[in-house]
Amino acid sequence: MAFIAVQKSKIEEQKGVVILPLKEYRRLLEQAVPTYYLKGKAAEKLDRLVEKGRKEYREGKTIRADSLTAALRKYGKNRAR
Q1: Is 62 inside a domain boundary?
Q2: Residue 22 within a domain
Q3: CB within 8 A of 44, min separation 6: which ones?
């Protein structure tokens, strides 16, 4: 049997503590993220958009940036030329 020491002040500060088996925790994590399934025209439109992006990536037409803001800034400079 293992013992875990947790300060009472930390429990009060966090408003409680939950102890779960790792398997149960992972199951809860998976359920927390909603899953969306597209059908019809929306699915086809997304498939075409992804394929277009993959093609541009293979052709070297994509921009590498650390954030969306940096990418938009870099994209704007490239478009001005």
Answers
A1: yes
A2: no
A3: none
> How much is the pLDDT for 78?
64
Six token digits for residue 6: 């947790």
17: helix, coil or strand?
coil
Residue 56: how many CB atoms within 10 A of its CB? Answer: 12
pLDDT tens digits, one per residue of 22-39: 999 999 988 887 878 899
CA atoms within 13 A on the CB side of 30: 6
| Residue 76: C-alpha distances to residues 9, 57, 67 (Å) | 51, 18, 14
Confirm whether 30 is domain-assigned. no
